[in-house]
Amino acid sequence: MIDGVGASGGRTLVLGIGNLLWADEAFGVRCVEALHRRYALPETVEVMDGGTQGLYLVQHVQAAENLLVFDAVDYGRTPGDLMVVRGDEVPRFTGAKKMSLHQTGFQEVLSAADLLGAYPARLTLIGVQAGDLETWGGPLTPEVAARLDDAVTLALEELASWGIAAIPRAAPLEAGSSDGLLRHGLDRAAYERTDGLSAASG
Amino acid sequence: MTTMSTPNGFALDNSGRRVVVDPVTRIEGHLRLEVNVDDDNVIRNAVSTGTMWRGLELILKGRDPRDAWAFTQRICGVCTGTHALTSVRAVEDALGIEIPKNANTIHNIMQLTLYVQDHLVHFYHLHALDWVDVVSALRADPKETSALAQSISSWPMSSPGYFRDVQNRLKRFVESGQLGPFRNAYWGHPAYRLPPEANLMAVAHYLEALDFQKEIVKIHTIFGGKNPHPNWLVGGVPCAINLDGTGAVGAVNMERLNMVSSIIDRSLAFIEQVYIPDLLAIASFYKDWMHGGGLSSTNLLAYGDMPALANNHSNDSLMLPRGAIIGGDLSTVHEVDLKDPEQIQEFVSHSWYTYDDESVGLHPFDGVTDPNFVLGPNTKGDPSTRIEALDEAAKYSYLKAPRWRGHAMEVGPLARFVIGYAMGRPDFKEPVDATLRTLGVPITALFSTLGRTAARGLECQWAAHRLKESFDGLMANLKAGDLSTANTDKWEPSTWSHNSRGAGFTEAPRGALGHWVEIEAGKIKSYQCVVPTTWNGSPRDPAGNIGAFEAALLDTPLHDPEQPLEILRTIHSFDPCLACSTHVMSPDGQEKATVTVR
Question: How far apart are CA B302 and CA B410, in angstroms?
């Protein structure tokens, strides 16, 4: 760090990535929502729903001294298994033969940041082995949904090891509150509710 | 089939060797292409397959139409805003809501900003690598590179030392063995034609563009409240404007508006001093590679976008024109009506869906999305483990086949530019004519892969100019005292009629995008999206017409079927959008297309 306050004084990004509309793909985003609802973090920490923005996330990664990523992963484990992967173990390469810019993997975002000369000093991935990545409009599978709180706990430990203390909120933020991260109609309860949805369609 | 002719004028022959290009990812999906080549490795048959079902229509059923934008925004990670805007327009159309002037202008600013960012990123970070050999850049002489750069542009970052630094950074990547985003390409392929110096210049601009695009997106953050995933609102825009405010949370004030103005000026400079000169320099080496035209010389479609006048969606108002060209007749631009049941129809005879009668097409208001995965009798390989070749005589794609009055159509920047050109609009005609003159090529050169790529660059420049004008218009209106940004008269469902239907349209950067909604008793009764890549990547229809991707690949010679760079080049020129969800990490981090030749 140039300003001499140590690595933990730099900017930290807590990033959830994945597609909310796609079963266990939603895990990363649901994690940052859960974390944000229950804990306040210092001003140097940004909690972000990265969705499937791909390469467009590169500037946020570049700006981060510390990067904590939540994501659904496929390491061939039992669905619901949580994994913590650090530093160079988080792969940062991908292929140029992709068909579409929309296939930009997060690995590519990391390598693009590296190429631009601004790679996070600390990088941790908290991943869950996904069970279902195929069902459009599907909910989190029970095995994965059951690990949301554990993933948040792991994140708090990781942040603490970086010298960042999360402060529990007196009461969790309401879904759909005017707060930026939660201000959409897709919070987990609303998204996964099934009551009344078919009634009006009949 | 061995040989046959299609009603839309193409000859197909699937007797030769079959080349299959299929992304390999954990998640099934995306785009798969199969082509047959003849003994000279020229493509004689092409099969475009969307291998993933996206049933958004079912997710939306029964929900509050005012929330639909938030769901549609997640269809796609790159075109979030354009889906949200299309959804908001569909619901406003259904409910008869007129939006304030400022809201319309801010919508245009959001959309034009997307164009500037998306076209720039597409060119440098997806498509340029089909023309630029990154590894060759290592052999470039930085001094010569500097001379080249200074001969085509006044862009200041052009010293020999600068290019030497870039080369050293690239070298570090190559030597570390990871190649970063440049891994798994066909480096050294003979279809690459640029000298090392031009390759190094392009690599430097690849990095500069990557760094610069973050500035552009700040406009979305300012007007959409946050980024990624800006907020949208049925009836207007969700941002309050307070010109006198000094950083009030969420309000747009003078300080932020000045920032927007500065970003627009810098974007324009980057496009005009970097993107356009690069495009012309690269094109000059490839101007005899005139493959990939496909449907572009015959059938083109645009819904239009960016109304200059709020709530006026006619061609008198639309900055990007609406219309259709049929049979290559540029003297007639046909009127397009999204609500006319005879115009836009989707067919599923070759798609993995079921209709009661698959010989007819359905207008999106009557759309049915009922998946039905069945393979034809001539499918090769094991359907449950590895399909070696699909049977295009049967169903072979999760994309439906949209048609305009029965015609397969190309959509996207080239369609928009040719339609604007045919209408005689100077803001389309003049840059096209100037570019053709500079390159010394006839107008027919437009109808090619390179023409599509050039149109995208010209459109990026067009968009930056319109962005500046739109922003100036917004400022003038605000200073005149009109601060209204939303019309909430019909916010409450109690003000809505029992049943209503609406169509929303935009031109996404990659082409015409439509949403059709039916609202009943305050909830969504049905919702259909027809996205640009469904038009371009469409499979055959009952009459046998092939779609834009399939048509564009025909007659292209492959230097080496094992390394089908030419296929990627043409498909990339459409800026396809198929899947936005492949970030899932696996231990080896692989994300690449495999190629099999049989």
Answer: 9
Q: Do B23 and A98 touch (CB under 8 A)?
A: yes
- For residue B505, the one-letter residue type is F
Distance CA A28, CA A70 (A): 4
Size of interface A-B (CB pairs under 8 A): 247
Element (H, E) at B88: helix B80-95
Between CA B254 and CA B266, with CA B260 as vertex, the angle to 5 degrees is 140
Q: Please give the structure tokens belonging to residue A54.
A: 């791909």
Q: Is A51 touching B (CB cutoff 8 A)?
A: yes
Scanning every residue of chain A, which has its alpha carbon at the shortest distance from the alpha carbon of B68?
A: A185
Q: For position A195, what pLDDT does the model report?
A: 54
Please tell me if residue A74 touches chain B, with a CB cutoff of 8 Å.
yes
Convert the pLDDT of each residue in B301-325 to its tens digit.
Answer: 999 999 999 999 999 999 999 999 9
The ipTM estimated for the assembled molecules is 0.82
B-chain CB neighbours of A94 within 8 Å are 181, 183-184, 589-592
Å between B565 CA and nearest CA of chain A:
9
For residue range B111-121, list pLDDT tens digits in order: 999 999 999 99
Domain extent listing, chain A = 7-201
Which pTM value belongs to this model?
Answer: 0.91
CA angle B516, B518, B519 (to 5 degrees): 135
- pLDDT, position A9: 53
- The two structure tokens encoding residue B237: 């825009």
The answer to whether domain A7-201 has CATH 3.30.565.10 is: no
> What is the C-alpha to C-alpha distance for residues B376 and B394, in angstroms, rounded to an integer?
5
Contact B231 A184 (CB under 8 A): yes
Residue B552: list chain A partners with CB under 8 A.
none
* Nearest chain A residue (CA) to B570: A99
Rounded alpha-carbon distances, angstroms, from residue B408 to A162, B390, B578: 57, 21, 19
Architecture label for domain B99-292+448-480: Orthogonal Bundle (1.10)
Nearest Cβ partner for B78 among A97, A101, A134: A101
Contacts of residue A141, defined as CB under 8 A and 6 or more positions apart, other chains included, come to: A23, A24, A79, A80, A130, A131, A132
Shortest Cα distance, chain A CAs vs residue B238, angstroms: 11
Q: How far is B402 from chain A (nearest CA, A)?
A: 21
Q: Can you give the pLDDT at residue B270?
A: 98
The answer to whether B591 contacts A200, with C-beta atoms less than 8 Å apart, is: no
Residue B295: CB atoms within 10 A of its CB come to 30
Torsion of the alpha carbons at B429, B430, B436 and B438, rounded to the nearest 10? -170
The pLDDT tens digits for A79-119 are 999 989 898 877 653 333 444 454 556 777 888 888 888 88
> Cα distance from A21 to chain B (closest Cα, Å)?
7
Contacts of B21 in chain A (CB under 8 A): 99
